[in-house]
Amino acid sequence: MKKLKIDKDKCIGCGGCEFNCPEVFEINISSGKAEVKKDVNPADYQEAVDRAISECPTKAISYEE
Fold first, then answer.
1. Is residue 17 part of a domain?
2. Nearest alpha carbon to residue 31 among 6, 61, 63, 58
3. What is the pTM of this model?
4. What averages of pLDDT result for each successive group of 10 residues across the chain (65 residues)?
5. Host domain of residue 46
């Protein structure tokens, strides 16, 4: 199963991923960086996740095998 990964070094905390798919992504208030929510299956929101990945301005979101 593919797992979503956010590169914290690339993430600028713009909130685009959270806007596109709030069911999967959230901005951590402490770090100001995006995170993948726990206990959520991104595959359930595949279209919105793909949109968040493609629209990320720094290309910080990807899948790891």
1. yes
2. 6
3. 0.92
4. 91 97 97 96 95 97 89
5. 3-60
